[in-house]
Amino acid sequence: MRRRYMSAYAAGLVLVVAAASACSSSSSASSSSPVSAAGASGSSSAGALTPATITLGLPTNVTSFANSDVAVAQAEGFFAKEGLTVHVENLSSGVPVTQGVVGGSLDIGASSVDPVVNAAAQGAPVQIIGSYTNKLTVDLVTDSSIGTPAQLRGKRLGIQQVNAFREVMTRMVIEGAGMTTSDVTYVPGSASGYISALKEGTIQSGVLQEEQVLKILHGDSKLHVLVNYSQADPNYFYGAYEVTKSWLASHQDIAERFLTAITEAHRFMYTHKVAVVPIVAKSTGYPASVTSKAYDVLLTQEHVFPVDSGLDAATITDTIATMQKYKILTGGTAPTESSLVDSGPINAALAKLGTQASSS
After folding, report:
1. Class of domain 39-134+236-353
2. Looking at 33-37, 114-118, 144-148, 283-287, which range is the least confident one?
């Protein structure tokens, strides 16, 4: 089970609950993209799908369990079933993923919601069309001598880069404890490098994915979980599949087919642990023993992978409000949920697959 260190966090982080707005939007612009296919739209008919190749960006240099739906969709043939060849690019965080989507080097990006909202606030034509995990899958791990968020003052805190997901999660804790980033020292590093940095003491905190938490805490009493984010803010929307409005206008069918495969992967993951654990272990580089325990937390206990749309309007609205409260929204005008989300492709995918009761 995930560790529960809520008492230390409750005194710091006060969460925002905002009123929901529920409406999805669509776009009609068009442009070129890196998709290659016999027929750019990838149009399909019953029994015949036009093959298409897409480039997908992931937000960590090594694939995390949170992004392992892509590996499952590849290994179990769900992409192939939809006539898709998916080339994956592992990047350093959601910031370059969003930049790649906006710049046109990526067709689809997998990113925490924060860079997507900030890009939209600054006028970028980005749209969220789906979710890989719509709940937070991370913990803040610190030296065991740190018992409250306030004790992070003056410490060296590991991040990817400013405005990337792990920095955003760290900043929420700092702001919630009445501090600013000037009260700590940020130490940039790779997501996969936090474990060694924490063990060596070169940083005193790091935001870690569940599999990283399980690995680092095994037999090490010098470190502990200070904040379990999924418990601290169960309404914070996490992982978004993003595209540009112009790409979506030209590739609606490909977006639908991609999300069909991803949804099939999510549903498969809940019912086929024995098959899924080796796939995830291979894609993340973690032992099957650690992966199995992470599976029990993320799927059996917390149900982080959506089996339907995963795009709850109230949750996304609340998340944007939380970003505003903690100064995570970095400029421009905050987008509304209805302007940020286009649920058309995922709704089409669900119409094809049939609905399934949400596991959340």
Report:
1. alpha beta
2. 33-37
